[in-house]
């Protein structure tokens, strides 16, 4: 699913230079490297404030807390995502409320509207741009305005994605992202960021990430130790961020090759019918497909025996996770589409170091599996 060996061959010289710069500086926490990376990341996202933190999970929690969420506030969100999305809501004191998704895994705006009308006290909204598929920015903005929501956009999988010519993360109060190694912009370890045009929110995130300090030994709030370190900031800024546009374009080329040569009738890519439109530009963090739940294990085993990695994103809906039995949460409706998708989804390789021959090999292996079934 990823090839970090090939990535290292590509970035090695720049990465070692970045590491050396940190070592020579003698400054390892919240120094010049973090400030320079934050400025570059914010500029690339066209948001004036980027605040590096320790993980994508922390980014969501800190953004919610900085935006004024109080213990017991209900937060509308998706049941289909990495558990970190909901875990951050719970850690911030919120009560997650789940509504169904579309057939492509993104939160269903009609269901969201129905939930908000049925539960008018909901103030916060955490949608996810899943798989690198951007939510419709116009619909998202309309929902935010209609219900006066404080929206924290989970963009951990969507850096570089656009809808209607607008990047993800530009409609809500803040965008949050992750630098987990498998992400499109991943570090060599953990990390994350909050991005926002709201200066007060940005200042509060900066305070909260550093023990709640407004100045050294002056603690205004109960904060976290959640600081992106200098080494990862230097690596991201010097070796990875400059390559992101090229990596994203290569992911789009691979996705187009899959979709243009897709032959299988029993395995369906999740991309919607208008996948080639300039109005909908995913960054293809994943290439998800659907296969009958009864056949998924067989296909995964076949591909594994053929030397092809696969993933499941995500086989258990968040409301069904055992950890949520101990906290308050609720579901609006039956979550039928999300439930079916969680049982049927399978991800096949799509990373920027795949060759065209390897993409064709994946397609050929799927065709052989289907012919033998």
State the gist of this model:
This protein has 373 residues and is an alpha/beta fold. Helices cover 42% and strands 14% of the residues.
Describe this structure in words.
The strands form 4 sheets. This protein has an 8-stranded mixed sheet with strand order 1-9-8-5-4-2-3-15, sandwiched between helices. A 3-stranded antiparallel sheet has the order 7-6-13, with no helix packed on it. A 3-stranded antiparallel sheet has the order 12-14-16. It is 42% helix and 14% strand. It folds into 2 domains: 4-243, Type I PLP-dependent aspartate aminotransferase-like (Major domain) (Aspartate Aminotransferase, domain 2); 245-372, Aspartate Aminotransferase, domain 1 (Alpha-Beta Complex), CATH 3.90.1150. It has helices spanning 4-25, 32-45, 56-66, 83-91, 109-118, 137-147, 199-209, 230-240, 244-260, 293-305, 336-344, 356-372; strands spanning 49-53, 74-77, 95-98, 124-126, 150-154, 162-163, 166-167, 174-178, 192-196, 213-215, 218-219, 268-269, 280-281, 287-290, 330-331, 345-348. α1 crosses α8 (230-240), α3 runs parallel beside α4 (83-91) and α5 runs parallel beside α6. The chain has 12 helices and 16 strands. The longest helix is centred in the N-terminal third of the chain and has 22 residues, at 4-25. By secondary structure, the protein is of the alpha/beta class. A hairpin with a 2-residue loop joins β6 and β7.
